[in-house]
Amino acid sequence: MVREGIPMLKVLEVLKERYGAKVVSIRKIASSLGISRPTVRKYLDLASSVGICHWPLRDEEGEKARLREALYPEREGASRTGFVIPEWAEVEKELTKTRKSGVTLWLLWEEYREREPQGLGYSQFCRLFKDYRKRKDIPLHHPHAPGQELYVDYSGPKIRIEPPGTKPSWVSLFVAVMGRSDYTFAYATRNMRSASWILAHRKAFEYLGGVPTAVVPDRTTTAIVSRHKIDPRLHPGFRAMGEHYGFEIYPARGQRPRDKGAVENGVLDAQRRLMAPLRHRKFASIEELNEALRERLEIVNRTPFQKREGSRRSVFEEEDRPALGPLPATPFDLESWEICRVPPDHHVPVEGIYYSAPYTLVGQDVTVRLTATTVEIFHREERVASHVRPPDRKNPYRTQTAHRPPNHKGYLEQSQEGFLSRASRVGPGMVAFFESLFELRKYPPLAYRTCQGILALQRTYPVDRIDAACIMALNLRSLSWRTVEGILKHGADRTDRKTPVSLSSASHENIRGAAAFLPENVP
């Protein structure tokens, strides 16, 4: 007899009418309760079969239990309709663990029908399996204490950065969400490595103005290095940050999306409400992107909730912020140490970038300290160099002028302005000579060599003679080192020193042309 769905309350009402203070006939009971007379008799027979022919019930719980067993008899491993019901836990286990092997619900149903030829049809098999999963996966509403959990993760697709004149690059979006208020923070990082992970958390705590009790990350390698189900081993850098700021690290379990439902929703909001409105903008730098994100965050966090009072910001200010721990006096920097030898070019290689050290340390061992933002070089426990880490590797060499050898400095200081400045300390004749030379030479290094050679004449001749020789060479329209050196060597600049030499006149009784100063024409 099929008894599934028989209402227990109707049975109790029939018993009350039949065995109450006044005995009522089956006809009247059926009429008052709106059921048929055979149904009334069936209920009474069922109650009589378990010894219940009275009202009120004497042992309410016990007698109701006996009625329930009589109403819903079930045999182990069978449904109330007589079909053998599969072990849904085994079905789910086969479906999830062997999904990559091509196992489908249809295959599992076929195997079930081989065992039970008169069993459930495929559609009913699927419906009952779906019902089992709904009963099994009933979500728990987990109340979050104020200031307790901060859920963190990286969001969806990367974001394009287009610096002018260079190739575009892609950055990642870090998202953090407070469990209590859903207060959201987002920050773009150049990559998802440990240094960027630490920097993003530091920015998040600064944005919140305090430190939560616990941080709940995904099982990323920047958070944990051993993905043990019960006791995962934390990344040493992230663990050190937790100790510095005073928060606990509670990694979400693998394949348990509800462990981090807040951040999953936050990631979705980051895509829909932060990045989607910015999809038509082009960002020339990551700093410009982060500034735009900060503006959008203010809008998102101030938007009123749809199903609860207030907004993310108002709930955060009222409940979360007072419960946050204080920020430490100094921010945390992820650091690592390396020992290396200074190469002959006095540039120490660090992660594909070459940082200069004083040239006097070539061939010696130094200690390099790396943080998210700086590279420091130590020699015998004394810091000898400090560099800011570049945002990319487009220019792999980072050199400080003070670290160069003197000959390198002189060579690199060669410029038109530099030579004119040095010429001004000699006299106006040399300045005029150099200016004319720079106008004549289309390739500046050619002029640099001539200027350098003329300045070097100061080692042999006094500056007043060199200045006069430059004026004579300029009037001869012979802008070369050889002409100036020839004038000085043969004393032409001393001829009639009483006669002033013009910077502009090209004809003079003492001007004999460049050929007059050639060795074969000099007596």
UniProtKB/TrEMBL annotation:
Residues of the region (Disordered) are 308-327, 384-411
Instruction: Give the protein name, as stated in the record.
Output: Integrase catalytic subunit
Q: Which lineage do the record's taxonomy fields give for this organism? A: unclassified sequences, metagenomes, ecological metagenomes
Q: Which PANTHER family match?
A: TRANSPOSASE RV3428C-RELATED
MF terms in GO? nucleic acid binding
An example GO BP is:
DNA integration
The protein's matches in InterPro entries, at most eight in alphabetical order, are given as: Integrase_cat-core, IstA-like_C, RNaseH-like_sf, RNaseH_sf
Q: Where is the Integrase catalytic domain?
A: 142-336
Hey, which family's this protein in? Belongs to the transposase IS21/IS408/IS1162 family.
Basic and acidic residues bias: where? 384-395
